[in-house]
Amino acid sequence: MNPGPSQKSTTVRLVEIDGMRAIVALWVVFDHFGLSGLVGMHYGFLGVRMMLVLSAYFAAKQLRLLWASGPAAQTPAVAGKLVHYYSSRVVRLGLLTYTTIALALLLNVESARNTWHWHALFATNHYITRFEEWPGALSHFWSLAVQMQFLLLLPVALLLIPRRWLWPVLAVGVLAAIGHRASVLLGGASDFHRWMPVANSLDAFALGIGLAWVEKERTPWFRRLTRPWAWGAGIAAMAGALWLRGHAYGALPGILTETVEAIGLVLLFGALVGGFTFGPVGRLLRFRPLVLLGGASLSLYALHPLAEQMLRRFWRAAEVEAFLPSPLFFQFSAVALALFVAWGAFHLLEIPARQIASAIEPGLTRLLTRLAGGAEGQPRRTAALWRFQPAGAFCVCLFLAYGAISPLRVGAPLLNPDTVNPPVAVEAMEELMEEAQDNWEGDFPETPEMEGDLLNLNLA
């Protein structure tokens, strides 16, 4: 591969993408282990956003049958595509997630036994939003929960949206994400209500789907992403997002921070997939150890907190902390152990999960075909479904808008019935105290001791 924009192949180059997955996972691990302080800024949020863009991009490509036009949309393998989509995600992600939860319960890591059912239901983000606290060692499952909720609903949404309406709905998704952050700011809700809901990630998901659409349906547009102005705009967007996050995140302009980040990441990733190798950066992404680690990036992300906690317990039990040359020695040792655990989990869990998914897919495809009442995966009554698509697209847009304004209902005093106006509460308390004092003086004879008690009550 020669570096430079001359290489125009639109084929996804798995080598570079695996290297990028590894860097993204390491980014998050370093942030969680406190090593991001070496560069003076936390970058875990950027790694998570890249993961969300990648999830939407690859999911949309796999579901191209549901949104493509031309010959790709006329293939009859609807059932097979849906079965493969769900099995490849639910089986692999589910097996790794539930194994991680089981290990956390067995090892009794922080808060695992009190919150495991939230993680098992892929509702960690809802737990954090509801209780406004991090659920211990498995707090990082919030991003897996967001991904799973989106991935499970994406095929349903694509079935409801007419192909010609895909772009308007994606635009509504981006606007809904911005509106969600605006409602957090206006409603006075906490940052947990900003970060955790799926609404906050809709722009990353929508832009990832849009990139997949442009790649397949508008190839000339996609090839333009390799030009200097396109990837230069991506770098400028990333710089602008970092400035917003550091200087205006809690102000009105800050509601654009995550969206600008997603735009920058999509432009840079599109240039990479389109054939631009980014010179030294491309050579780094093709670095063999990173490529190998990229395949195990999901295991690394899921298991790294458990590895860190187990290493900390071992060193405390062995009483060797006093002999460490520096705190960084423990942190880098935790990274090394997490890499070793992830490599083992990849071979023991992820590869068998793929084999299980491949084994059950034929039977599930036949079952879904029979339930749909068609042959070769094509339902007989698809025309009836397409007739209701405009109404379905309208419902999808309403659902996105409803999710965007949810922080207003939580945080705004005028919209939240559980919030009481403080002056009214003070006046009501004073009236109750006066009534209680009158009843006290009327029902019992006054004595010097009684007068002293009333004096103390008034002072209190």
Annotation field: number of helices? 22
User: Structurally, how many domains make up the residues?
Assistant: 2
Largest beta-sheet details: none
Share of helical residues: over 70%
Structural class, judged by helices and strands? mainly alpha
Could you spell the SSE succession in H and E letters? HHHHHHHHHHHHHHHHHHHHHH
Textual characterization of the structure:
By secondary structure, this protein is mostly helical. The protein has two domains: about 15-420, no CATH class; about 420-460. The protein contains 22 helices and no strands. It has helices at about 15-30, 45-60, 65, 80-105, 110-120, 125-130, 140-160, 165-185, 190-195, 200-215, 220-225, 230-245, 255-275, 280-285, 290-295, 295-320, 325-370, 380-385, 390-405, 405-410, 420-445, 450-460. It is globular and about 70 Å long.
Give the key terms.
single chain; 460 residues; mainly alpha; 2 domains; 22 helices; globular; disordered C terminus
Sequence-ordered SSE layout with sheet pairings:
Elements lengths: L13 H19 L11 H19 L1 H4 L10 H30 L4 H9 L3 H8 L9 H20 L5 H22 L3 H5 L6 H16 L1 H5 L4 H20 L9 H18 L5 H6 L2 H8 L1 H22 L8 H46 L9 H6 L1 H16 L1 H6 L10 H22 L4 H12 L1
